[in-house]
Amino acid sequence: MFQKTRDVVALDLGAHSIKMMVLSRGKSMFDFLGSRSARNRTAAQLTGQPPRLLALGISHLPRGTIIEGKIDRPDQLVNAIRVLADHLGIGGKNHPVAIALTGYEVMIKTVTLPTMTEEGLEKRMTEELGQYVPYPVAEVNIDYEIIGMSKDKATHMDVILVAAKRTVVDEYVAIIQQAGLEPAVIDVDFFALANAFEAACGVFPEQTIGLADIGASRTSLGIIHQGVLTFTQDIPMGGQQLDDSIQARFRDVPAAPERIKLGGAAGFDQARLEAVLREVVRGWAGNLRRAIEFFHKNYVETPLDKLYLCGGSARIPGLAEFFQQELGTPVEVFNPLQAIVVDPQQFDLQYLESIGPQMAVCLGLGLRQTSRK
Ligand SMILES: Nc1ncnc2c1ncn2[C@@H]1O[C@H](COP(=O)(O)OP(=O)(O)OP(=O)(O)O)[C@@H](O)[C@H]1O
Ligand SMILES: [Mg+2]
User: Fold this and answer.
1) Could you write out the three-class secondary structure of 336-373?
2) 354 pairs with which residues across the strands?
3) pLDDT tens for each residue of 244-258
4) Which end of the chain is more exposed for a tag (fewer CB within 10 A), N or C?
5) What is each CA distance from 254 to 54, 186, 201, 216, in whole angstroms?
6) What is the DSSP secondary structure assignment for residue 3, as one 8-state letter?
7) Nearest CA to ligand 1 atom 2
């Protein structure tokens, strides 16, 4: 029957800032694998015109609102969402919201099962879920998708399983409702990130690609091997560590540490700042190296063809080159916004170019669609 597409409001709730984006698209532009899955690979099915940017905004959050993925000050978060939505003219039932849970909040697991139908799989998942998740079954929301035939066993298939504690999901749903919006899609940031990357840069079926979203408090590392997101890891590192180191070393400079980091303060020794930054990001390179080594040891030995960076902290000048030297792998910052069409009359292209890397998860969420029943 005739279905009217509603434009999804993508909402990325980060420790440093919340990001909101609305994309429009013509009919049939995206054809999803199925409505149930959190893991629809949007870019692979992209046909026709890329989506067009309708609205975009970032709003800074007071530090401490979200700590290590946990919402510590829900009132501040609700308020920030409400203010940003109002500013962008977003609200009500016509704007279903898509958010992403992070690696702190979900368990992602690939299980190999005998080949069976969707119905058979549903029955099996219902009956045997307790075997796969480390929480009481009654307390989790799950989602799963067949990712393909198993490479090791000809008669088997690989299924990706995502489980989130119901209390966590309920908390996010309540926050969005309190901000006057309608929660519609709950995704996982690794999947949104992979979708954004493929929409912006394409699908590389022969390659092994690393994606690192380096935010303020955490880094999501995903590795796409031959077009399939094979490995995900949350690493507790990001721009706040730089701010903390600056605060500890520049007590004499009367400016906020983030301002010093971004070059907005004067009256101190620039070389000393660079030394502080280098020390922290050398630690980041070490964390990435260990995670990639773990991937090689336990998943796939093939070296990475390239590591792509995004997230606000990927905007640190020279970071990609530094990682490239430290890791011995080609490294590049990617701008997910190159996946979409932007009207230069409506948006400042230079601004979008600069904030682009920060919008990867948000863009991946914006590529979702829901339809009016
Ligand atoms: N030009 C820049 N140079 C260096 N750091 C930057 C720059 N722009 C933003 N940042 C840093 O990036 C971080 C914010 O990035 P981002 O918006 O991706 O994080 P977040 O999504 O809010 O946090 P998280 O993902 O950790 O929850 C902050 O630490 C900020 O200081
Ligand atoms: Mg983030």
Assistant:
1) HHHHCECCCCCCCHHHHHHHHHHHHHHHHHHCCCEECC
2) none
3) 999 999 998 889 999
4) N
5) 40, 42, 42, 22
6) -
7) 315
Probe target for ligand 1 pocket from 276, 313, 350, 354, with the most ligand atoms within 8 Å of CB:
313
pLDDT digits (tens, 9 = 90+) for 159-179: 989 999 999 999 999 999 999
Q: How far is the CA of 214 from the centre of ligand 1 (A)?
A: 7
**Sign of CA pseudo-dihedral 232, 362, 356, 241:** negative
Q: How far is the CA of 14 from the centre of ligand 1 (A)?
A: 9
Ligand 1 atom closest to 217 (CA):
26
Q: Is the pTM of this model over 0.85?
A: yes
Task: Please name every residue paired with 113 in a beta bridge, in sequence order, or none if there are none.
Answer: 157
For the chain, which domains are there? 5-371 (3.30.420.40)
Q: How far apart are CA 195 and CA 205, in angstroms?
A: 14
Q: How confident is the model at residue 313 (pLDDT cuts 50, 70, 90)?
A: very high
User: Which ligand gives the minimal distance to the CA of 15?
Assistant: 1
The binding-site residues of ligand 1, defined as CB within 6 angstroms of any ligand atom, are 14-17, 215-218, 238-240, 258, 261-262, 311-313, 315-316, 358
Q: β-pairing, 182-188 with 156-165?
A: unpaired
Which atom belonging to ligand 1 lies closest to the Cα atom of 357? 18
CA distances from 4 to 180, 270, 287 (A): 22, 55, 46
- Expressed in angstroms and rounded, the spacing between residue 358 Cα and the centre of ligand 2 is 7
For residues 210 and 287, is the Cβ–Cβ distance under 8 A? no
